[in-house]
Write a structure and sequence with these properties.
Elements: E1 8-11, H1 17-21, E2 27-30, E3 41-44, H2 48-59, E4 73-74, E5 79-80, E6 85-86, E7 91-92, E8 97-98, E9 103-104, E10 109-110, E11 115-116, E12 121-124, E13 129-132, E14 135-138, E15 144-147, E16 152-153, E17 158-160, E18 166-169, E19 174-175, E20 180-181, E21 186-187, E22 192-193, E23 198-199, E24 204-205, E25 210-211, E26 216-217, E27 222-223, E28 228-229, E29 234-235, E30 243-245, E31 250-251, H3 252-265
Parallel strand pairs: 1-2, 2-3, 4-7, 5-8, 6-9, 7-10, 8-11, 9-12, 10-15, 11-16, 12-17, 15-18, 16-19, 17-20, 18-21, 19-22, 20-23, 21-24, 22-25, 23-26, 24-27, 25-28, 26-29, 28-30
Antiparallel strand pairs: 13-14, 30-31
Length: 266
């Protein structure tokens, strides 16, 4: 019997067995019989991906905007344009402004004093697939999006809901136009993210990080508080506090020294 305190995880490749078994998960769906670590339960399945979807959708109803709106909570003085589409079990705080053609998916939670500009989508499906029999099989997302207080989100942004947990935008953060944030990513407080940035799933961007235009970030990356990623930077690994630049992010001063050396060689 699952409880609200259980952390559920699946693994179907030997490469990730140790990571899953040593994770915080309390229940692990796995495709091989192995020794069960203390404090965990293992469910052995011939297809953990398939059964993970079955279990998740059993406990979380997927509506895809196909059913009558219910359990919508809207705070005082909040303005929502008539063209906004809102899913089920959505909570919106006080003094928010939500512009035309915004889409807010099921279970989204929006705090107070939030501004969401036109054509932004909160709570779309995670980009999480496996290739099966020549086709792509989707992992169904049953998590949500949480937008904390005083967040501002520009036009045409897309913030995917978590697979089983929450995608979070921290208090006071500001997002420019045309930004993609992947599933289960956590953006800290007072972060500044410029246009055309693409952030993959399961990233952890700590507080007061500045990300300039067209930055790309790989899945699972952690960016330390106070870091600055300059335009077109590629973050493919965890980064300590600093200023970074380059296709494969390196400290900006180091990058400049390298450029000077290359120039002097000519």
């Amino acid at each position: 019997m699952f409880t609200n305190t259980d952390i559920f995880y699946f693994v179907d490749h030997p490469k990730y067995y140790d990571k899953a078994l040593n994770s915080e998960a309390t229940i692990i769906l796995i495709d091989k019989e192995v020794d069960c670590p203390p404090g965990k339960a293992l469910l052995v399945s011939d297809d953990p991906f398939r059964d993970f979807n079955k279990i998740n959708t059993h406990f979380t109803k997927i509506t895809n905007f196909g059913e009558t709106l219910h359990e919508l909570e809207v705070g005082e003085r909040t303005q929502i344009h008539s063209s906004v589409v809102i899913g089920n079990n959505v909570k919106i705080g006080n003094d928010c402004v939500i512009f035309p053609n915004v889409v807010i998916g099921d279970r989204t939670i929006i705090g107070d004093n939030v501004i969401i500009q036109s054509n932004t989508v909160l709570g779309g499906d995670a980009f999480y697939y496996r290739k099966l029999d020549g086709n792509f099989d989707r992992l169904i997302s049953v998590g949500n999006v949480i937008i904390e207080n005083k967040v501002q989100i520009g036009n045409g942004c897309t913030i995917d809901r978590g697979v089983t947990d929450s995608t979070i935008i921290g208090e006071g953060s500001v997002l420019d136009n045309l930004i993609q944030i992947g599933h289960d990513t956590v953006v800290g407080k007072r972060c500044l993210i410029a246009s055309q940035t693409g952030i993959a799933g399961c990233c952890n961007i700590e507080d007061e990080v500045t990300i300039w235009g067209q930055v790309g970030m790989a899945s699972g990356v952690r960016i330390e508080s106070g870091t600055v990623l300059l335009a077109k930077c590629g973050a493919n690994r965890d980064l300590k506090k600093g200023v970074y630049f380059g296709q494969l992010a390196e400290e900006f001063k180091q990058y400049l020294r390298k450029e000077v050396k290359l120039k002097n060689m000519k």
